Amino acid sequence: MAIMQQIYKFVSSMKTGLVLLLMIGLASAAGASLLPGTFFKTAFFEALLVLLLLNMTLCTVNRLKTTCRLLLKHVGSRAWFRQAGILLLHGGMILILLGAGVYAFQGQESRIHLCAGEQVDMSRVLKVKHPFTVRLNEFRIDFNEDGSPSQYVSEITVLEQGKKIKDISVNVNNPLNYNGVKAYQSSFGHLVEVQYTAKNGAKQIDRFAEGDLLEPANTDRTVKIYRYIPNFNPAHGMNSVTMRPDNPHIIFSVYAGDKLLGIGTAKFNEPTRIDEDVYLVFKGVEPYTILQVKADPGLPLALTGGILLLLGICLAVLTAPAKKSALVHDL
């Protein structure tokens, strides 16, 4: 029995809780850098959350016992409100941990790539109770006067069974929030339109992502569409002067088998020689958006916990005794 009491005292102590918080903080910082997007669903991180949740629950039970004893002594209203604030603080932390645990075990996250006019059924990306479709009408970059980007915007339409529900401009500070799913503006890219002669002898225009390989007809050479440069200046090398398309170029490389023959730059709509009598024409680029989509069923718990936590801190601070005392000691 004495051993069990010691174990209970250790697990329910505030010092153990602080150590677990420190471990979670350090692990989160390292995990977010080394394993972004996956660390918070690892068994190690989930175990830390469970241990901290257990610690906070037992701490709250202990605090509730203390509060009951004080109330039986008929303490003043100031002391009562202080104990109520501390209980709210503990309860809020428990709800936040429960919300984090629900997301760790049941939360979903993915990325979608969309060009203008394309759409995706969210039930094929996430397990959602109420399926809906997201269609990209336009992706654009707004620029400042100096050519630096001021905003990245995805004009989105939400549809259910083919019927438009609403339009929304998704940007960095304004995610899509619908039916428990959030979509954040994460990144973007460009598809390069190239006119070339295919192996079957037909001239065609295809779209290639940066890094894709192109094998034109009448040559054994391969072309790698390396990078789109919106504002090219040789002095800046592979880096664009600005993101605004003031002087757009394509950087490409030519290979014979695995051997690199050379690297070149090309303007749009000008024939670019690849081999004898073999030419490509880079016709333009089409931007596409990258949206980070996630479903977090634990968010309502975490939000409620955050509100209770703030209320508890306010009550505990406003009703603190006049003499100096450490808040951590009272908790």
Overview of this structure, please?
The protein has 331 residues and is an alpha+beta fold. The protein folds into three domains: 2-107 and 298-330, no CATH class; 110-189 and 290-295, no CATH class; 190-285, no CATH class. 35% of the residues lie in helices and 36% in strands. It has helices spanning 2-11, 14-34, 43-72, 77-106, 299-318, 327-330, and strands at 108-115, 119-121, 133-143, 149-160, 163-170, 176-178, 181-197, 203-209, 213-214, 221-229, 249-256, 259-266, 271-275, 278-295. Strands 1, 6, 7, 8, 13 and 14 form a six-stranded antiparallel β-sheet that branches. It is elongated.
Highlighted features:
331 residues, alpha+beta, 3 domains, six-stranded antiparallel beta sheet, 6 helices, elongated
